[in-house]
Each structure stands twice: as structure tokens, then as C-alpha cells.
Structure prediction request, 403 residues.
Amino acid sequence: MADAIALPQARPAQPALQFLRVVPGVLLLAAVGYAGKLLERNVGTYAKAHHWTFPNIEYVLWAILIGLAISNTVGVPQIFRSGVATYEFWLKAGIVLLGSRFLLGDVLRLGGVSLALVAMEIAVAIAFMTFLGRAFGLRPKLTSLLAVGSAVCGVSAIIATQGAIDADDEDSSFAIAAILALGALSLFTFPLIGHALHLSDHAYGLWAGLAVDNTAEATAAGALYSDAAGKLAVLAKTTRNAMIGFVVLAYAIYWASRGEAKTVGNKAAFLWQKFPKFVLGFLLISVLATYHFFTEEQTTALANLSRWAFLLTFAGVGLRTNFREMRKQGLRPFAVGAIGEVAIAVFTLALVAGAGKLFGF
Amino acid sequence: MSTNTVSLPRKSWKLSLDSWAVVAALLAALLIRAGVFTRVPW
Prediction:
């Protein structure tokens, strides 16, 4: 047999490889999300047919629970991990598409109320978390990361701040673990508290958007209450996300003034780089919907597409939450985060109650 | 005091995940607007 001639192998293009790497995980997100949807439909019907008393569990919770069960028992195999990490992509695409359900007037009115509440929430959250971090003797940069994570938008804010203030990877992973663990807890506690207090969809949605840190968890906590509350939670959380650049810039300037981080050169470019672009996409779709660029049927199609994107997100929230990994990160950052989050939740609830009296919702 | 300056990454044509999500959502919206997809079931 003739010797085989080794031809130079054509290297697959990088983007194609990247695309192929995420396919298994995206399929897993879709399977878990769709299983949640099927369970919502069938478990209720089955229980009714057999005269069982069974709470009506929405697809959001089923998708999260299935994801949590996989992640905390057999674990997510390596082949699925890149794809599971795309849940952030689906979340942001879903938020942009959700813009079609908001008329520009609503966005400006509710966004204006949210903006005022967000400004108060950020100021109080940063002050309180900084005080707690000092009281518990946490490292100052870890305290800064926890303060930004709980005041603005969870993991994205922590990652953005870590680079800007030259924080250690270890501090960053402590802060992320604390924020994620508390986010997971809020999925179960917020709807229960909301129902116990008989909050309206409007008040609850605002509260979830103001108090729950990570965008994915805030969206899920809102959707677990009702569709309308989910919409409001996304709007309030998006307003909070829009503030990320300003808060990170302030921290970067603070740490640079102490000689413990690099100084920021072009502040406008810094702000633009940190600004979450999906906020602009959300506003653009909202403007188009307001000026009847889409028919009613097309608006429904866009809203449904947004729900599918969120379905993948909720599956991802469950699949990436591993309580064993979180426990390894230590108790003190978690304790500071937990005490701070409870205080922020109580404070924002009071803010929402005050705004509700003022604006009548 | 440190004299180093935060240098923003050099401008490249690579989009962030954020921007890709916006592009994908706008593309989907345009396809629905153009009537390529008339209905999205839920």
C-alpha cells in the first residue's frame, strides 16, 4: 500500500469553530426550557384530572428547577458549557425584542420613575455595602466589587469594575459567587414576599428590577410573579444597567486617586465602552413600535420571540448555578452580601411603596 | 500616585456579546417586518 501523503489540513475558520462549540449547550438550553414549558402545561392538567391539589408552577420555575437539578447532581458536562454560557446573549436579545411591548411614552414615564428610584438605590446600596465590608474586615477592593455588584447589575458590573480598579481575580470570584448565590435565593423569596404583601404587578416588577442584582435573575423573578411584572422588572433593571458606566468610572477614579489603580484617560470613551448596548437596542425597537413600524401581528411575533429567548435564559440560570462551587468561596463575602441584600430589598420596597403612593400604582 | 493610564483596547471590528445580541434581535425584527416569518408561536 502506498504511503499516505500527509496533506496540510485546512484549518477550520475560528468563527465556525466557535459556533460549533456552542451548539450542544444551546440545544441543552432549548431542551431544558422546552421541558419546563411542557411540564407547566401537562402537570397542571394531570393534577386536575386526578383531583390533586397541586400549585400552578410556571414554565419559568420549571426551567430553573430542571437546570438546578442537572447542575447540582450530575453536573453540566464540558461539551455543553460554552453553549450554556450563551444564556447572557439570549437574555440581551430577549430584552431588545421586549422593547416592542413598550410604547416610547411608557418607557419615558416609567423609565423616569425608575431612574429616580435607581439613583437612590445605587447611592444607599454603595454606602451600606461599603460600611458592611469595613465592619466585617473584608479587603477594600473586594468590598468595592460587592458594592458595585449589589448596587448596579451583578456579575457584569463586577467584571467591568475588576478591570478598572485592578482588583485580584480572587476578589472578583468571591464577589461573583456571593452575588450569584444571593440571586438564586431571590428567585424563590421575592415572589413569595410579593404575594404575601399583595403587591400589584407594577409595584412588584419595579421592586424586583431595583433589588435583584443580576439581570437574568431579575427578569426571572419578575416573570415568576406575572407577565406584566416581568415587563416592569426588565424596564427597571435596564435603567439600572444603564448606570454601570458612571459607577465603574467613579470607582476607577477613586482607586486611581489612592494610587492603587491606573488613571482613566478618555472618560467619554470609557463610559461608551462600559455602556450596555442592549439598552439602545431596546429603545430603538420601542421607538419603532411606537411609530407603528410593526403591525399588531408582527408585534405579537416579536413578543413571542422575546419569550423564547427568555426561556433559554431561565434554563441557563439553573444550569450555571452550582451551590457546591459557591460554598467553596467562603462565608464572609456571602454574609456581607446577604445582610446588604436584605437591607437593599427592604429599602427598595419602601421606595416602591412611596413611589406607588405618589404615582398611584 | 500611579501615573499609568487605563488604555482602552485598540479599536477592532470584533463586536461584544452585547452588540451581537442587539444585531441578532434587530435582524429578527427586520425579518418579521419583511414578512419572512409571519407568525412566531408560543
Observations:
- The longest strand of chain A covers residues 263-264.
